[in-house]
Amino acid sequence: MKPYSKEERSWMYYDWANSAYSIIITTAVFPLFYKAAATNAGIRPADSTAYLGYTLAITTFILALLGPILGTIADYKGLKKRFFTFFFSMGILSTAALVFIPSDDWMLLLIFYTLTALGFNGSIVFYDAFIVDVTTEARMNNVSARGFALGYVGGTIPFLLAIAIIVLAQNEWIPLSVVAASRIAFLLTAVWWGLFAIPLFRNVKQLYYVEREPRLIRASFKRLGNTFKQIRAYKSLFLFLFAYFFFIDGVGTIISLATAYGTDLGISSTSLLIILFINQVVAAPCAILYGKLAEKYTGKVMLYVGIIIYIFVCIYAYFLRTTLDFWIIAMLVSSSQGGIQAISRAYFAKLVPKHNANEFFGFYSIFGKFASVLGPLLVGITAQVTGNTSSGVFSLIFLFLIGMILLAYVPSDKKLGATSMSDEKKVEPLT
User: Fold this and answer.
1) pTM (two decimals)
2) I need a surface site. Which of 43, 68, 259, 422 has the fewest CB within 10 A?
3) pLDDT tens, 277-292?
């Protein structure tokens, strides 16, 4: 394989940049910070986990509604990076603002967490769509997987620094409280995210676009309506999206609620932070491995592998009792979480018409985000009804099973090139 181009490397480095948010805010430090605040306020553990799940559901619902509309508008010349910049800035600023929120105000923490999630996930919609501008179809699996791998490595560095500061504070080896140490982790996230996003801003450009028209918003809704009318011509694409809707729901929910789940089981915050750090280390080479195996066995096969592993995780989680059990689950998740996301992104990118990439990645977002409404709600409701978080995690098994069944009707990677070309020939221009 030829060396990565400057554009490919710059695009991949945004995975390196934003993974600090993924691990510190989404998965590790913020959930522990929030759970401590909720506990101090007298909130029952299962309830505080449910509230976090509901917050995730509300956030992703908002993004799901906005995704296709924003994506359609961003397909016009020169607008993709502007939308990316807007959401990127929202994410950076609201993450930095977490530093100043009182540690006992769990409600305000959830509000600002919503803003950070909107900024982070909104920027990802347009970042994912940039893949068609930086590489070819033949290299997409590899480039996408390498991006996720870089993300795990990049996320590990600030996370390790955050762990070190928090552990030192917990043991009173430095003159900082755990609250202050956690706030430093939030600030570190914002700085890391902003610094390593610079290559994308400098070197990645929108190569595929639709020429601007008068009344952009009205024209965008018209294009969006035309796409819905011609859905049958994109049968393979939308069938994949329905499969993706279900299996990525389970993946995202497990990632987002893992720390809260571990806390409910009585696992110490120090153990959780160490487990999550090792998770990042293991996930990086596994994501690269998924990309290489997808080139050999097809992406569809590797998606099946990832789904099966997650089904086993859901079953195992129901019987989880000890820290060792949590270690085993964490390693299973780390073996597949980056791979299944990277292969899904590349698989979808091969199906989309390049000039309308933002519009279609808007649909990719809406399916992924609406899925992320269902998963946290399912876990939250089940946890509250049963009083057992493990039952909530087990309920996710049904989402993976449905996704696997639907995936069976999606064409193999070997047929995607021909399928996507024939789809584009059958579809009239969307402008």
Assistant:
1) 0.71
2) 422
3) 788 788 888 888 988 8
